[in-house]
Fold this protein.
Amino acid sequence: AETHAAARTSQGDNMKIKTVLIIIIVASLGITLLVGNVLFMSSREAERILEEQNKISQLVNVVNIRRNLAVEYLLYHEKRARQQWDILYNSSILLISTIERSVTPDGKVVLERIRQDNESAKSIYSDIVKNYEATISGERSAIDRELENRLATQLLVESQAITSSALQLSEINQSILTASQQRSNQTIIIFIAVEFLILTIIFFLFQ
């Protein structure tokens, strides 16, 4: 009888051990999947933001080159500078459209301001070109020079406004990226703490 009782006790202990192991395995797999999902989502968010940051940098670079081309056109009125400016304007439109597909709601407000300033810059530059072409066959009057100088100043202001807004958009993305990484780290810590708590409870229940 004692042998049978000991055997039953041994079987009961084995069952407890198996139950504990199963719970530990399931809990570990669950936590691992959750942590992996958090890391995956965080990675995708970081990838999206970094790609957007790259497009913003390209836009700032395009605007800076356009500003230099505008100065060159004002000095020499060469057709090449005018054509390159137009090509870069089309590039800026494409970059803005690309950024718009992934930008956050807060960023959309800033991006819309960039779009409006970009269109204004195009309009001002077109006026500069028209002003020169209208007087290309003769001496330009003082009024024409005054208009050209005023338009050049306006174009500079618009270009600077685009750059400032682009930097603001970049700062918004950086804040989002930092917050996302912090949330991921906090979530992972919570999951690990929960797993530790589960294992601790199991240890005390089945010891």
